[in-house]
Amino acid sequence: MEARHLRYAVALAEHGHFGRAAGELGIAQPPLSKQIADLEREVGARLFDRTRQGVFPTAAGEAFLVRARRALEEIAAATVDAGRAARGETGRLRLGFIASALLDPLPGVLSRFGRERPDVRLELHEMATSRSSLALVAGELDVAITLGSPRGAGVEHLVSVPIGRDHVIAVVNTAHPYAGQLSVSADQLRRQPLIVSAGEDEPSVVAALRTLLGTDSSVLGGAIVARDVHTIIGLAASGVGVGLGPSRMRAVPRPGVRFCEVTPRTPLPDLVLSFAARDHSPVLRAFLDVIRANCPDVGAALNDRIGSHT
Predict the structure, then answer these.
(1) Burial class (CB within 10 angstroms; exposed 0-12, middle 13-18, buried 19+) of 191
(2) Which family does the similarity line name (predicted)?
């Protein structure tokens, strides 16, 4: 029994006439009569009474038609669902990210993706670069946004592209002597109590700060340790020291603080988007399209990386 047999039976029941049903179906009447007869033999019961007044479902036919209509509705729904899944309109996306990505560019990306793909289930996990790298390689994540490229075994099977560059800036209380300066120097920072991040991605950040302040500087050893950029800004607002963090901290509006550039300019590791090279899912493609739209500088690099892994 095929779906066409169900359509034939439903059309015949609706029109009550072989000729009219055949016309709607776009076939000749004799083939329709034969197909209905074949269906009745397969079912093992007469489904229609043929009379001079018309063709009418039997009791067996009425029971059959209830299920037939339901099956045809399910087939139509399955076709729609398959198309939506193929276009990346449904499904799941598992994203791991470092906290500072929520300053930029994630808010714009997630907002747009949610508007364009409201039926995709987003599973969001804040995690350090080391953890998200392992999860991505293990297939527990679809996408990861990390500080620097993922590290560890298996990362050679990932596609990675920078989506944001950053450098060290300072944040101080508005009453601090540095608050009126556009920039502060490394020498000035060495004379101040500092506030730095203590997240699991700290080694790469500390390495950048040691480049700025000098490897023999004791100022980092006595620094106040904060969990994330929000804590850095909050402690700086409290006047307990000079906060050092990524330039995307400027995206956090808070009264009572001022941001200053730091000289010499000290780059931090890039913000990097990664996914498995073998992953060609429509949902991932849809997410990458949003990345391209929201991060214009990323598009060419992303296309280059994808091309080299296909």
Answers:
(1) exposed
(2) Belongs to the LysR transcriptional regulatory family.
* pTM of the shown model: 0.76
- Which distant-in-sequence residues (6+ apart) come within 8 Å of 39 by Cβ? 1, 5, 8, 9, 47
Domain 3-86: CATH class, spelled out: mainly alpha
Please give the Cα distance from 151 to 203 (Å, whole number): 13
- pLDDT at residue 16 tops 90: yes
Q: pLDDT tens for residues 56-109?
A: 999 999 999 999 999 999 999 999 989 988 888 899 999 999 988 988 889 999
Joined together, the tokens standing for residue 190 give 């060495």
Residue 97 DSSP one-character state: E
Cis peptide before 269 (omega within 30 of 0): no
Residue 108 has what pLDDT?
92
Hey, where are the domains in the chain? 3-86, 93-164+270-308, 166-268
**Residue 294: C-alpha distances to residues 27, 107, 143, 228, 291 (Å):** 51, 10, 16, 25, 5
CA pair distance 64, 280, nearest whole angstrom: 42
Residues 6+ apart with CB under 8 A from 11: 21, 24, 25
Helix residue ranges, H only, the chain: 3-15, 18-25, 29-43, 59-86, 106-116, 129-137, 186-190, 202-213, 229-237, 282-294, 299-308
Q: How far is CA 128 from the centre of its chain?
A: 17
The SS3 call for residue 111 is: helix
Looking at domain 166-268, its CATH architecture is 3-Layer(aba) Sandwich (3.40)
Rounded distance, CA 99 to CA 159, Å?
Answer: 21
Q: Which two tokens stand for residue 100?
A: 């500072």
Q: Can you tell me the distance from the alpha carbon of 149 to that of 146, in angstroms, rounded to the nearest whole number?
A: 7
Stretch 27-54: mean pLDDT, rounded?
94
Lowest mean pLDDT among 181-185, 199-203, 219-223, 292-296: 199-203
Residue appearing with tokens 């007044």: 53
